[in-house]
Design brief:
The protein is built from five helices and five strands, in the order βββααβααβα. It is α/β, with parallel strands linked by helices and 150 residues long. Helix 1 runs antiparallel to helix 2 and helix 2 packs across helix 3. The chain is globular, with a radius of gyration of 17 Å. The chain starts with 5 loop residues before the first strand and ends with a helix.
């Protein structure tokens, strides 16, 4: 069954929510998919990497920051590819025909670099804004407010 629908991908480097609609989260017809968690493993990887680098004999701060940055970048890419895999499969199933991407500046830029063509063609709009700090129940209303009148 093919639906004419827009999905909303709201993300940062450690978490994403793919809202299949902008209904209230308590509406039984509301659907969304969650990936990762705020403050999740990428932040832990960064902390561990910095700890190990600071313990090195040379004490090179630039090296420590570079290693942490590389670790975060690899983790963010892997995280994005999990989301892309989901979106490609759902797109092939006809679940949506367009996407609105809403995310923090770094993840939106990385998305633009990494997104596969089949998903890229579906992006109707991308907005730099980190909405994941909102409580889950306020996410759909925050997106509606951000998008303005239809």
């Amino acid at each position: 069954m093919v639906h004419s629908a827009t999905w909303y991908v709201v993300m940062n480097t450690t978490a994403a929510r793919v809202l299949h609609d902008l209904r209230d989260m308590h509406d039984p017809r509301h659907r969304e998919t969650a990936f990762g968690e705020p403050g999740g493993q990428l932040r832990h990887a960064q902390r561990d990497c910095l700890s190990m680098s600071h313990a090195s004999a040379d004490g090179d701060m630039a090296s420590a920051a570079g290693t942490a940055s590389d670790t975060m970048q690899k983790g963010a890419r892997a995280f994005l590819h999990d989301i892309f895999d989901h979106l490609v499969a759902r797109r092939h199933a006809g679940a949506f025909d367009s996407l609105v991407l809403i995310g923090s500046p770094g993840i939106v830029e990385l998305w633009r670099q990494e997104v596969p063509g089949g998903v890229s063609a579906c992006v109707r709009r991308d907005i730099i804004c980190n909405l994941l700090g909102n409580p889950q129940k306020n996410l759909a209303p925050a997106i509606r407010a951000l998008l303005g009148p239809a």
